[in-house]
Amino acid sequence: MFLPLVPPIPGIEDAIPATRAFGHEEFVSDQVVIIGGGEIGVETGLHLAQKGKQVTVIEMKDVAAEEAKRVHYYNMFMDAVEEYEDKLKIILKATCTQVTAQSVTYRDEAGELHTVEAGTVLLAAGMKANAACAYRYAGCGKQFFAIGDCAQQGNLQTAIRAGYQIGSSI
Fold it and tell me: pTM of the prediction?
């Protein structure tokens, strides 16, 4: 279990964690802004673009989905993004300054403010581990090991590796 990181942006309480969009696409408007262009933000944006939504992803760094830079995966990922360039726009080197129910305002690298209209604002600014949730079960068995998002924020690959390492040491 993970918890979304919530940056101190005025109005951010109007944003919905990006992970909640999957399986609930009918509740996501046709005009979407995603705050955060890491792997989760770009994957969510790509998924919603494939569903016909107009998506803008706003990322602070100078590259989108930086953590996806594994052999061949990043190129395959970006090829898919290019295929939907008419539905998916990624803005890099941008810092969100305000969220409202209808828009997101950001500052570009030149310091200029821009506003993007949005019927739905999704938050993909990162995740943090929820160790407290996992440790509620610590006394249920003979041994207990916290892996995946219960130990540290990661992805499926890091959780599988951690599980393998622990399984190999038992």
Answer: 0.83
Q: Of the candidates 58, 50, 37, 59, which has an alpha carbon nearest to the alpha carbon of residue 84? A: 50
CA angle 101, 106, 108 (to 5 degrees): 165
C-alpha closest to that of 57 among 30, 86, 33? 33
Q: What is the Cα–Cα distance from 104 to 62, expressed in whole angstroms?
A: 19
Element of type H or E holding 90: strand 88-91
The DSSP H or E segment spanning 78 is: helix 73-83
What pLDDT, in 10s, does the model give residues 34-81?
Answer: 999 998 999 999 999 999 999 999 999 998 888 776 655 777 778 888
Three-class SS state of 79? helix
